[in-house]
Hints:
α2 (20-31) packs parallel to α7 (153-175), α3 packs across α4 (77-85) and α11 packs parallel to α16. 45% of the residues lie in helices and 23% in strands. The protein has a six-stranded mixed beta sheet, sandwiched between helices. It has a five-stranded mixed beta sheet with strand order 14-13-15-16-17, with helices on both faces. A four-stranded antiparallel beta sheet has the order 10-11-9-12. The chain is built from 17 helices and 17 strands. It is an alpha/beta fold and 422 residues long. The protein starts with a strand and ends with a helix. Bound molecules: adenosine-5'-triphosphate and magnesium ion.
Amino acid sequence: MRVELLSVGTELLLGQIVDTNAAYLAGKLSELGISVYHKTTVGDNAERLAAALRISLGRSDVVLATGGLGPTEDDITAAAVAEVMEVGLVKDEATAERIRSFARFRGVKLLDSLLKQALVPRGAQVIPNPVGTAPGFIISRESKTVITLPGVPTEMRAMAEQSVFPYLADRVEEGAASVIVSRLLRIAGMGESQAEAEISDLIRQQTNPTIAPLAKTHEVFLRVTARAPNRAAAEQMIAPVEAEIRERLGGHVYGADDESLEAVVGDMLSDAGLTLAVAESCTGGLIGHRITNVPGSSDYFVASVTAYSNDTKTRLLGVAEDTLRQYGAVSAATAAAMAEGVRTALGADIGLAVTGIAGPGGGTPEKPVGLVYLGLADDSETTTEELRLRGDRPMIKERAAQMALYLLYRALRARRPQEVLG
Ligand code: ATP
Ligand code: MG
């Protein structure tokens, strides 16, 4: 089955916004094993939109369009689709009622333009919008289908996940000989080439599943992709390859798919019933930000203190002035004292600390930009780690935060009896 994407909006052509909708949809469609050969962007112009729809329907089975479903004058997608499918527009009563109650709830005047959003091409199946007012729809004529979704990314995603992907997945299963399934293995504490070297023979031998490394700013992903007649068969092909990669990379594989390191670490803290306090210098609160992105982090996260100046390190964390004078703010001794200090000051089970030189200035031959020390203190010991990170200032901050979370991950793993026994 061929699906193509059509992004509607003059603002996209003016470069005022980036077409993240198409990028998101293209990624998801490839995961569903759907071939996407074309992606078109067209402005809010009735003639050109209709022409683009005709061209797309001429070469693909399904056109997935986003944008132009709203209440304003320039929102013309429904009308253009109706014209191309040679049907009229009809009011969808359920949607009209939703819009009326929305207007009542918000205390806004029920404008005709709002109700216009309830107009869909005759014969279309309405895709409900759980987070906004404009619905999407699916309409087929002969073997060709047009699917429309609103342009607002949050609405588009919610509706795509709830309605469009399941619809397309069903059609793929019915029609096609195979599906493509991917599993993303997430790796920390190891560069792309290092990870690749550990599994180079697997990568060389690969045909199905395939293994592809992907380098991000602060982590590496390995994507294992299998093609099989159905999802279950593909997953069965991926499982042994995943097991082999995990075996070779050991604890470096901290999670899979959309499990972030902060979420994995959060689960481990939660399971162990431990609390965490963080002392951040060069990461400027980034670790606290990432940890608090995880819902439920209040169960285990006590605080993140951004102790940037030496004075704060002493006053809030109790780092001895002597330590700072003798070893400097960027040193293993200071990282250890920060970790111990934040743990004691806030009464947490674990104290985690980062101090380093993010650059671009401030480096010396002995202490270059990218030199970072991590500290981790618990009830029995304090460990430190020296890192030499590369990159510009934001990259060093991100990488330092990642490595700090990875140090915490390893410490928590080591506490688990079953993991120790292998
Ligand atoms: P609304 O009900 O908000 O009017 P709509 O379906 O009419 O939704 P548009 O008016 O085309 O959608 O776009 C609404 C907003 O959604 C745009 O201002 C833009 O911020 C965002 N948007 C639209 N298309 C895209 C896209 N392809 N990628 C990313 N963002 C987009
Ligand atoms: Mg609009």
